[in-house]
């Protein structure tokens, strides 16, 4: 936030002074200005660099696009505009989206520095929902989602009442899937990294709108809606000491969004919303009460079925995502027992064997088993019976440099062994000590976990 910046006008003046006052040729004047400002630590993102006499700021395609949109912004969108005007506005926003989509181009920074967020919000505020105007709103929202990319742009969005504009339009268009998807993409972009914007959306009752969309009859997936849930519930604004997102998650759950997402998971592995809905549900599951309520709504049954299906169909993404959510739900002691009672340990070991070539899936399985076995000798015994010890040995041998998997293996072994002499004997007989010591020596990230595992296996020289 303390980075020095410069306006386009001030930059152009500096280049012009180099030419007129210091007698530099145009190319030299530009290079000198860039070098001097960089030396001073000035952030030049969004600055258009032009060689005087050869090109100008207005030649930039982003600026040309914005200038034309400003002309339309000067009149009422639903006033004297013709159909072809709507077509051109739509085309301009599509062009702006294409120009700014590539992060490497720097065009999004140029557009934002030259007022694109304010301009787009202004045009949105003048649009009334209709079949005609919707063909402008969708590309408009898509462009806005690309433009909002950092704290400066989210603050611009906030200052020009962007949250109110977007939520009002979404409330008026709850039956248009394309518009909802584009609009919730803006919500996700704007809420990312900005605690105040999250709060504004909550004050505007975005949670009620989310539930309304989840419960609507249409089964068309609004993928950005799930992204918006995650953005609203992620504590990612490092300017604030204490985030309010955990309270928002409880509000979401109390309203019924957790239940609605759990029901969405029931469509199973064939649903294109499974991964997104699982990720969103994980963001809501912030305490024991919510985790238990998800289980009571059938969440564990659904996840175990999806884990089985993902293994059979070879869907690694679904497998990892479902395991990640299950590990969150397993934080509740009653849910641990439910998972075990429903043969969850057997299903998890089977999944790991089916994806024996992927340490990322295996480490998710190990994490769940570790959580299930925490402070529970009975669950640890069942984990050994299901094959958790053999899984650890095979995976640690096969993936010696997969640091996170090795760490999860050590934690799993520790929780399986700590309260069971019988389990310790079995694991040591299978050669686990050597594998843990190798992991400790080769992977810095799992040294502490390896030391704890060696100690809880009953070994005296665990610090060596």
Count of runs of 4 or more consecutive helical residues: 28
Strand coverage percent:
under 5%
* Element pattern in H and E: EHHEHHHHHHHHHHHHHHHHHHHHHHHHHH
CATH architecture of the domain at 60-234: Alpha Horseshoe
Structural class: mainly alpha
C-alpha termini separation: 46 Å
Q: What is the CATH H-level superfamily of the domain at 60-234?
A: Leucine-rich Repeat Variant
Strands of the widest sheet, in order across it, are 1-2
What fraction, in percent, of the residue positions are helical?
55-70%
Largest sheet: 2 strands, parallel
Could you list the spans in which at least 5 consecutive residues all have pLDDT below 50? Answer: none
Report the C-alpha radius of gyration, rounded. 28 Å
Q: Could you walk me through the main structural features you see in this protein, from its secondary elements to its overall organization?
A:
The protein is mainly alpha-helical and 464 residues long. Among the domains are: 1-55, no CATH class; 60-234, Leucine-rich Repeat Variant, CATH 1.25.10.10; 356-362 and 385-463, no CATH class. The protein has helices at residues 8-20, 26-39, 61-73, 83-100, 107-113, 116-125, 131-147, 151-159, 162-171, 177-191, 195-203, 206-214, 223-232, 245-255, 257-265, 274-284, 288-296, 299-313, 316-329, 333-341, 344-354, 359-373, 377-386, 388-398, 403-417, 421-429, 432-442, 447-456, and strands at residues 4-5, 42-43. The model has no long low-confidence stretch (mean pLDDT 93). Keywords: Repeat. It comes from Arabidopsis thaliana (Mouse-ear cress). This is Armadillo repeat-containing protein 6.
């Amino acid at each position: 936030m303390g980075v020095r910046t410069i306006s386009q006008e001030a930059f152009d003046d500096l280049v012009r002074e180099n030419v007129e006052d210091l007698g530099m040729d145009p190319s030299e004047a530009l290079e000198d200005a860039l070098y001097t400002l960089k030396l001073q630590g000035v952030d030049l993102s969004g600055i258009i660099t032009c060689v005087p006499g050869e090109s100008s700021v207005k030649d930039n395609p982003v600026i040309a696009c914005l200038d034309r949109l400003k002309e339309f912004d000067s009149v009422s969108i639903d006033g004297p505009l013709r159909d072809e005007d709507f077509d051109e506005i739509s085309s301009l926003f599509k062009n702006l989206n294409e120009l700014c989509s590539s992060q490497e181009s720097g065009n999004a920074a140029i557009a934002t520095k030259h007022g694109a967020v304010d301009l787009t919000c202004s045009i949105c505020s003048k649009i009334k929902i209709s079949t005609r105007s919707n063909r402008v709103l969708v590309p408009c929202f898509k462009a806005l989602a690309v433009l909002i990319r950092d704290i400066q742009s989210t603050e611009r969005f906030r200052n020009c009442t962007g949250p109110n504009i977007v939520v009002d339009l979404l409330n008026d268009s709850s039956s248009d899937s394309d518009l909802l998807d584009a609009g919730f993409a803006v919500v996700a972009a704007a809420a990312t990294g900005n605690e105040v914007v999250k709060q504004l959306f909550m004050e505007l009752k975005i949670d009620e709108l989310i539930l309304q969309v989840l419960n609507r009859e249409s089964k068309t997936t609004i993928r950005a809606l799930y992204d918006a849930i995650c953005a609203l519930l992620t504590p990612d604004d490092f300017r604030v000491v204490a985030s309010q997102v955990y309270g928002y998650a409880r509000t979401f759950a109390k309203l019924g969004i957790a239940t609605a997402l759990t029901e969405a998971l029931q469509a199973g592995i064939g649903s294109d919303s499974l991964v997104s809905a699982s990720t969103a549900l994980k963001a809501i599951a912030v305490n024991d009460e919510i985790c238990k309520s998800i289980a009571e709504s059938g969440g564990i049954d659904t996840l175990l079925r999806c884990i089985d299906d993902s293994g059979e169909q070879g869907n690694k993404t679904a497998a990892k995502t479902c395991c990640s959510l299950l590990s969150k739900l397993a934080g509740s002691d009653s849910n641990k027992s439910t998972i075990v009672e429903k043969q969850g340990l057997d299903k998890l070991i089977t999944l790991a064997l089916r994806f024996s070539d992927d340490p990322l899936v295996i480490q998710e399985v190990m994490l769940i088993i570790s959580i299930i076995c925490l402070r529970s000798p009975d669950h640890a015994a069942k984990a050994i019976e299901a094959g958790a010890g053999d899984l650890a040995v095979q995976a640690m041998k096969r993936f010696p440099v997969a640091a996170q998997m090795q760490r999860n293996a050590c934690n799993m072994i520790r929780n399986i062994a700590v309260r069971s002499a019988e389990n310790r004997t079995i694991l040591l007989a299978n050669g686990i000590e050597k594998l843990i010591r190798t992991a400790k020596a080769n992977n810095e990230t799992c040294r502490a976990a390896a030391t704890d595992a060696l100690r809880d296996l009953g070994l005296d020289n665990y610090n060596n």
